[in-house]
Amino acid sequence: MLTMIFACDMNNAIGKNGDLPWRQSTDLQHFKQITLGGTIVMGRKTWESLPGKLPDREHLVMTRSNRDDVETITYEGVLELSEKREIFIIGGGEIYNLFLPHTEKIHRTIIHCKVEDADTFAPEINSEIFKVSDSTVMKKSARDEYDMTFELLERI
Ligand SMILES: NC(=O)c1ccc[n+]([C@@H]2O[C@H](COP(=O)([O-])OP(=O)(O)OC[C@H]3O[C@@H](n4cnc5c(N)ncnc54)[C@H](OP(=O)(O)O)[C@@H]3O)[C@@H](O)[C@H]2O)c1
């Protein structure tokens, strides 16, 4: 099964200048809680935006080049693996677009802000295809810039 996880602003923005456009510690904890112990798939640009491997998760990176710093995987390889177990698609924009048609479940965090000059966006989620099955509003902590809403969307 493919599960997608992303955080977006109120205009669906997810990135700016190769990085996350906010500081949201509570959302990073949420991401960790969901993906810990699992397999995460990401595009090469998202891989390069990370400080290194995240603890206790299998990392698979999509690229059309060769790399020796991380395991890589093809589009077909991801789909094949997802028939055997849950795979987390963790971005970025290109990779979310690629796998949305095969995704069963989406963990979406809406960050209560509007990023100026964002350059990367999540795909539009069609409400006739995915329904919101859970939604929790979180007030910002001292280590967050904005309030946020944690949502779970499931394919109808
Ligand atoms: N808010 C969030 O939840 C969130 C999550 C993740 C990322 N982000 C942000 O999103 C931005 C990065 O997203 P992005 O769309 O620019 O890049 P990306 O999706 O992370 O990576 C794009 C790269 O993936 C590889 N790729 C794409 N399609 C492929 C295919 N079919 N087969 C093999 N490789 C393929 C290519 O790598 P090569 O060029 O090496 O061939 C391509 O350049 C950053 O700002 C990041 O911080 C935000």
Give a concise summary:
This protein is of the alpha/beta class and 156 residues long. It has helices at 25-35, 44-49, 75-82, 93-99; strands at 2-8, 13-15, 39-43, 58-62, 87-89, 103-111, 120-121, 130-138, 148-155. The chain starts with a strand and ends with a strand.
List the SSEs and their pairings:
Elements (H helix, E strand, L loop, with lengths): L1 E7 L4 E3 L9 H11 L3 E5 H6 L8 E5 L12 H8 L4 E3 L3 H7 L3 E9 L8 E2 L8 E9 L9 E8 L1
Parallel strand pairs: 1-5, 1-6, 3-4, 3-5
Antiparallel strand pairs: 2-7, 6-9, 8-9
The structure holds NADP nicotinamide-adenine-dinucleotide phosphate (NAP).
Molecular structure report:
It is a single chain. With 156 residues, this protein is of the alpha/beta class. The protein has one domain (2-155): Dihydrofolate Reductase, subunit A (3-Layer(aba) Sandwich). Helices cover 21% and strands 33% of the residues. It contains four helices and nine strands; from the N terminus they run E-E-H-E-H-E-H-E-H-E-E-E-E. The protein has helices at 25-35, 44-49, 75-82, 93-99, and strands spanning 2-8, 13-15, 39-43, 58-62, 87-89, 103-111, 120-121, 130-138, 148-155. It has a seven-stranded mixed β-sheet with strand order 4-3-5-1-6-9-8, with helices on both faces. The protein has a two-stranded antiparallel ribbon with strand order 2-7. Strand 3, helix 2 and strand 4 (58-62) form a beta-alpha-beta unit. The mean pLDDT is 98. The protein binds NADP nicotinamide-adenine-dinucleotide phosphate. The site of NADP nicotinamide-adenine-dinucleotide phosphate has 26 residues, from strand 1, strand 2, strand 3, helix 2 and helix 4.
